[in-house]
Amino acid sequence: MTAWYNADLAYIHDVGFRDYALKSAPGVLEILTARQIPTGLIVDLGCGSGLLTELLERDGYRVLGIDISPAMISIAQERVPTAEFRIESLFTAEIPACAAVVSIGECLNYVFDDNCDLVLNDLFQRIYRALIPGGIFIFDIVTPGQVPAGEVVKNFTEGQDWIVLVEKQEDLTRQILTRRIITFRQIGELYRRSEEVHLQRLFDVESIAKKLEQIGFRVEILDRYGQFRLPPARVAFIVQKPYAKI
């Protein structure tokens, strides 16, 4: 099985790329309050190192965090020891009855399975069944346009004890974004090199909205979480399971 976010990349992501989760969190909490979900269980799919999980718990929610990366879950458990965590693919994990499901940071785009379209449809249906009436599902996706057509974009970022180099390319025919990620992390006096290749399916917004509506969700599409405007070529969905008719 492909490894996702091994120890070094998980560490670097936690210390150097936490802004997305932290800037999204206030808006996510505002949405929960506005949709009259002040308490209850929230399932955090693709919880990563537990940055959002921590803030949800601090606001009074119970949280179940699910992530495919053991290294990410290890960091999350240290950060939020009172939350429950599971090491599983977010696409196949069992989702208990809950008030809300969140998946922040383009988690649903990751290609863990060749049949990802079928897996995604199944996930949407299972989330719908798990949500209480009036429950909500908050998530964001990456859309085409991350990289100019036919180009390869390279960049690097460095921190106190790490460097990460990323090479990105879009295959418009397959609608796949490939990220080649090379990391160097200081261990003692030396730097350890690691490499991962991540594939993400680039989704059509209208197609995703249609899938959700066919299942029964009420769909709202946004370009931000509260005051935090999403980076280019990303879209947020706030979808709600209707209240039961009396």
UniProtKB/TrEMBL annotation:
<dbReference type="GO" id="GO:0008757">
    <property type="term" value="F:S-adenosylmethionine-dependent methyltransferase activity"/>
</dbReference>
<keyword id="KW-0489">Methyltransferase</keyword>
<protein>
    <submittedName>
        <fullName>Class I SAM-dependent methyltransferase</fullName>
    </submittedName>
</protein>
<feature type="domain" description="Methyltransferase type 11">
    <location>
        <begin position="43"/>
        <end position="139"/>
    </location>
</feature>
<dbReference type="InterPro" id="IPR013216">
    <property type="entry name" value="Methyltransf_11"/>
</dbReference>
<dbReference type="InterPro" id="IPR029063">
    <property type="entry name" value="SAM-dependent_MTases_sf"/>
</dbReference>
<keyword id="KW-0808">Transferase</keyword>
<dbReference type="Pfam" id="PF08241">
    <property type="entry name" value="Methyltransf_11"/>
</dbReference>
<dbReference type="GO" id="GO:0032259">
    <property type="term" value="P:methylation"/>
</dbReference>
